[in-house]
Amino acid sequence: MNGLRIIVLAKQVxxxxxxxxxxxxxxxxxxxxxxxxxxxxxxLNALEQALRLKDKYPGTTITILTMGPGRxxxxxxxxxxxxxxxxxxLTDRAFAGSDxxxxxxxxxxxxxxxxxxxxxxCGRQAIDGDTAQVGPQVAEKLNIPQIxxxxxxxxxxxxxxxxxxxxxxxxxxxxxxxxLVITVNGTAPECRPRNAKRVxxxxxxxxxxxxxxxxxxxxxxxxERPYLNIPELxxxxxxxxxxxxxxxxxxxxxxxxxxxVFQAKESKVLSANDEDIExxxxxxxxxxxxx
Amino acid sequence: xNNIYVYCEVENGVVADVSxxxxxxxxxxxxxxxxxxxxLVIGSNLASIESQIFPYGVDRINVADDERLFPYTxxxxxxxxxxxxxxxxxxxxxxxxxxxxxxxxxxxxxALHSGLTAxxxxxxxxxxxxxxxxxxxxxxxxxxxxxxxxxxxxTIINPDCRPQMATVREGVMKKEIQSATFKGxxxxxxxxxxxxxxxxxxxxxxxxxxxSKVNIKNSSIIVAGGYGVGSRENFDKxxxxxxxxxxxxxxxxxxxxxxxxxxxxxxxxxxxxxxxxLYIACGISGQIQHTAGMQESAxxxxxxxxxxxxxxxxxxxxxxxxxxxxxxxxxxxxxxxxK
Lengths: 291, 339
Prior knowledge:
The structure holds 2 protein chains of 2 kinds. Chain A is an alpha/beta fold. Chain A has one domain: Rossmann fold, CATH 3.40.50. Chain A is built from 9 helices and 15 strands. In chain A, the strands form 3 sheets. Chain A has a 9-stranded mixed sheet with strand order 9-8-7-10-6-1-4-5-13, sandwiched between helices. In chain A, 47% of the residues are buried. Chain B has 2 domains: 196 residues, 3-Layer(aba) Sandwich (Rossmann fold), CATH 3.40.50.620; 117 residues, Rossmann fold (3-Layer(aba) Sandwich). Chain B has a 7-stranded parallel sheet with strand order 7-11-6-1-4-5-12, with helices on both faces. Chain B has a 5-stranded parallel sheet with strand order 15-14-16-17-18. In chain B, strand 14, helix 6 and strand 15 form a beta-alpha-beta unit.
């Protein structure tokens, strides 16, 4: 097998898994500012699968595609530190408010702009929405097959890819023709760490919007070392139809948002001693909760 | 036309619980909307499937029966669903938030350009006023789900696109037979009109499925452990207590990740949702992702060394201390006082 052309879809997300004490405001609502922006965990599992294919099939190239505001270029740097070849930041105000379908359309348009590919790999779902919809919807928009819930990309032989899937009640080994989309589970191997040499080489990599306020010295640096430029794509570059992205391209609308507030109830506070435990068990038995 | 459709999953000739739960919900929504409830079953050897489905008050079952349609693969099931929906124009389509529903749902919604909301915890009918457009929408499906890691609850609507699609996890809705003798219409779809040979491009080479042996969802008492339990050995104490009380053992994601318990015992946003009579939380701090899956328990006991563990706020009994001392005492005094 010659090298594969792989596109990895990765997303920068708020770290909803580590909602510490300072992340909740006094009224019980979320303090979004206190949540760190991180690399979506399952997208890292996806990147690792791509890197393993690159190890196995020399000549493979890995291109990262991320959609988000300017600061999402961090995802591309992080991916390059770990072994990805390059990345594109898909960014435009027109994308704001996109639901999964509008997002998938924008991503699919960007993928077509980037060029030919053999494989699109992404995490099964992102922790800010937990929908698991973008992977299959991108596949549909590109009119290619999908293999979801992947745990291990086993081999690529003569344009056929073999993948082990981890489902809620078992495993499946499936085979499909390239090109296709694979979504990777959190049960897949963790991503390898950053490579120190690559960190040194690419730590100044940045996108145009990130460089807006940098000094002239820096601008010279980017002319000298073009590999430090993280290219940006906007709506026009992708030739996406504006009405199909953002709020206007989203069939779903958010009608209402409620913050979850912990309801304190009257609780009986007991100690671990024999009397307290016995009286609790007697109460539970007498009110038929137990027995 | 404009009916409610439920995509039913079948494994070994048995309709999945999640599909029956959705049919139960679908029946209620159909009564409210004064439309019909239809089931879509795609698979092979489906000869007697209707006897499992009609009792849920299903007006029509659409069956696509072909040996190539089992096991599930994306394209053939998508092709049938999309074409049938284009013909029948359902107003609502429901699927399980399973590895099948979450593979099929987004593909179908993309093909039909209709909105899909994943992992709904509640479905209601309501109206919506779009002030900007000066339009009022009646009888929309409110798709209510947690988002942002369970820290917010969002109500999602699809004002203009049909069908309004939603997936729901197993155990979230209740399963209830409408009438054991109910009979609707059975319609066999002519499979080759809906699927082409080229749709079978993904081959399933091997498949190992296990019936879920652990049944935490239907257990009225659950003894659940978190990361605070400390080890797989300490988890054995939870099993002892569960044995004595006739309970099942559950676990938080942190405990599963740490290897103290198997994944099929996981309770919470990424595991199952439970609503037992009694929930005994041992060494569980009570991250929102966990409490989202158990907060409807009728009674909660929290055993934790941390007197300020967040779960204590939703507990009826808070015991501060070490489970290795407390659990043996609970066993002892249960045995002493129960008849």
